[in-house]
UniProtKB/TrEMBL annotation:
The keyword Cell cycle does not apply. Keywords: Blood coagulation, Disulfide bond, Glycoprotein, Hemostasis, Protease inhibitor, Repeat, Serine protease inhibitor, Signal. Residues 41-91, 100-150, 211-261 form the BPTI/Kunitz inhibitor domain. InterPro entries: Kunitz_BPTI, Kunitz_BPTI_sf, Prtase_inh_Kunz-CS, TFPI-like, TFPI/VKTCI-like. This is Tissue factor pathway inhibitor. It comes from Cyprinus carpio.
Amino acid sequence: MAQLLSWSCRTLLLLPLIGICFTKFTRDGVRSEIHIFHHSCALKKDEGPCKALKDRFYFDTDTGRCESFEYGGCQGNENNFETLQECEKMCLVKEDKSPCQLDDEPGPCRGLVPRYFFDFKSQECKRFFYGGCFGNANNFKTIKECHERCLPALNNMERNAPLKPEEVEAKPKTEPLAKHVEAPLNASHLPMQRMSKPSAKKPRLNRPKLCFSPIDRGNCEGSEERYMYNPRTKRCQMFHYSGCGGNKNNFVKRSDCMKMCMRGVFTADIAYFRVFDIIIEKNPAV
């Protein structure tokens, strides 16, 4: 029996200000999320305004496959590939494709579903809020799933031991290395390690000042969809930007707003070591 795949965005009557997207992948009456590897694959087919007829491929969220279409030759969007292979490489989720270098992506819907993603820069699994539809493959329901997919070495060492907060936070102490050390090949893929003793203070969430700036449409005549952080509701909400002026509480993507203002910047008195980078944060009082 053919798989029926569709999605829709609806606004709940009891929550008129919150639009929540529901994904529906129906097979024998069972629903699950629609999975795509990269968030651009959720964009609708866009032939563009020009009149050329170029054979291209796009990912169709209704069929779950890469389909052919005729591209006009200009503009359009990122869901546009010259070959079927390029489309499938970018959009299909497969076991042999690692999602661990992708950014966290909440997707176009407006839910607040707790999920985990792998932060490639810090080599850690972190929590984020998933909108409820699409996004990308760097999206895990539990921190254990994230570890198993993106930190196989850690998973092998601790396969039989439950993860505890202190085990995730505390790293082995290491002595500072000499100034001149030859880095091994692929050293940029090594996880960060703590050096010296970890701080007893808990990290604190500091939102940048720009997140508290009031909504400002600017003083031009345009109308562009942008996002701003509302400190009263503690959410990133859409507004229409005129195209010039305004303030820095203005983001092109909702995910950028969430990264800057909903997650904020965690500060702690810790020192990190990585083969190619040394990042040190010290407590001025020490």
